[in-house]
Amino acid sequence: MIVVFLGPPGAGKGTQAKLISQELKLRHVSTGDMLRSAVEKQTPLGLKAKEYMDRGDLVPDELVIAMVEQEVLQAENLVLDGFPRTLNQAKALESMLSKHGKGVDKVILFEIGDDYIVERLSGRRTCPKCGAVYHMKFNPPKEDELCDVCGVKLIQREDDREEVVRKRLEVYRKQTAELIDFYEKEDKLIRLDALKSIEELYEEIKKALKNEC
Length: 213
Hints:
Elements: E1 2-6, H1 13-24, E2 27-30, H2 31-40, H3 44-55, H4 61-72, E3 78-81, H5 87-98, E4 106-111, H6 114-122, E5 124-126, E6 133-135, H7 162-185, E7 189-193, H8 198-210
Helix pairs in contact: 1-8, 2-3, 4-5, 6-7
């Protein structure tokens, strides 16, 4: 089974992908994690990608497709988190899968308003030493701006700044409108309310996908 999680940044795709991949024994492929790892390691791809990510722009299709293809072809059962994000990427995915007798089974669309996303992401802080993640409203550290574990000053990721988040959302809405139509016409799209609790959303996804197993 191959499942795509589609939705704006901060909609909760990563959290749900980790949960559902364990439940249904799917390989979790996160393009966001892969890109951030490449940036951190300062690989040639990472250095190119960072320029786009810092501006809130989508990383060009050719870079993302090249990075994802090897991952996609390594496993029979996948949950793709953050890919495809454009119609061109979706067509490239269909092409690479069809060569191996595979195809996308279902696409879960996480629907949520922009203001909620901005609040979620712009309040996020990360410890540069241990990687612990906090939220200044929903999960604040005990001492303002300091990690509970390390005592190190927390940082805000460049792409979590409010102006960058809004730019990312603008780009997302523009780029994915035709992608949503594409999967809807293929009768593969399932729309879910991403404002529901993690537990409620998880149960809805599990129910939708278990029908495919």
